[in-house]
Design goal:
This protein has 373 residues and is of the alpha+beta class. Helix content is 26%, strand content 39%. A hairpin with a 2-residue loop joins β13 (297-326) and β14. This is Zinc finger domain-containing protein, LSD1 subclass.
Amino acid sequence: MDPYSQAEQSAALNSSLQCNSCGATLHFAPGTHQLKCTYCGATNEIVQENTGPVVSVDYDSFIHSTNSLSAQRTAKVVSCKNCGASTTLLAEINSENCTFCASPLVISDAESKQIVRPHYILPFAITQQKAAANFQTWMKKLWFAPSDLPQLVSGHASQLKGMYLPHWTYDADARTEYDGRRGDYYYETEYYTETVNGREERRSRQVRHTRWHSVSGTVFNEFNDIFVIASTSLPRKVAERLEPWHMQALVHYNEQYVSGFRSELYQVTPEDGLEQAKLIMRGIIEQTIRRDIGGDEQRIEEYYDTYRNIALKYLLLPVWISAYKYNNKLYHFTVNASTGEVVGERPYSGTKIALLVMAIIAVVIFIIYLSKQ
């Protein structure tokens, strides 16, 4: 694709995002496939030009093609001076805070960059209002939370920011040769004497032993959609707790679904993402080896894995993100905008925990007292 064609596409996108009724910018309406004007309420259907199946692309081909214009799009990008997150912004944004650390973004430092175009996007299905309601419900169910917490943070739920987070998914076929040991249980009768009522009695018992022998073999694994978050702004443990996603709702990437939202650029390269995916794969491979060894116990001494037919997908997945302060400490929370799942940090009430400990001690003392009566 030449620069002229890219400029034409950019002009066509800008035209599609302009309200025909009042001229304002149309934003994607979560839970629909429509663009909606926040001023006059007019709507436009998002027309998907590419309706083909969701498939992975060859890994090596993707790596070699990322520098081509056809694999790129133009975006206004600003990097947070505090946490380093790189975020795309709408052209009309002049003042904004970082979604991840709440630090003010220096909009004057924003640059127009050529960035890699994602393959697929999972559009927002959960509205901001629904995400806020889910957060409030989650907050009320927290054990040992300060009693005033739900009321104090109620306003922050309405400040949720919509963000598309970058993810890689990897497919691969693995062939693994291993050496190990198989342990099989066997039992022997052991005799012993025991004093019963002042008399010695001879008794027997079954004692378990393990017979080990060396084994080797080859196992095969087929991996599909191993998820790796391509952001370092959101902790990996949080990202994993947000799973699963409604992947059946994936659509081919269309910038109209991003209108009104931010999207973060990937910070984990596809090469580094593959290494992270292999760590996940190796955990599964080791389970396969243990099943192949069989027996009652297994020891894996060493194995050599090779990977073929490696493929990937570059995805944007939707979340609502916000943060609140309690006793001058910042707590973050995230809502999966596909399923509504809430994952967050929370404070604990020292008073409630102390009362519980005191109650447990009191019960133990009471039980001891009764046992002595």
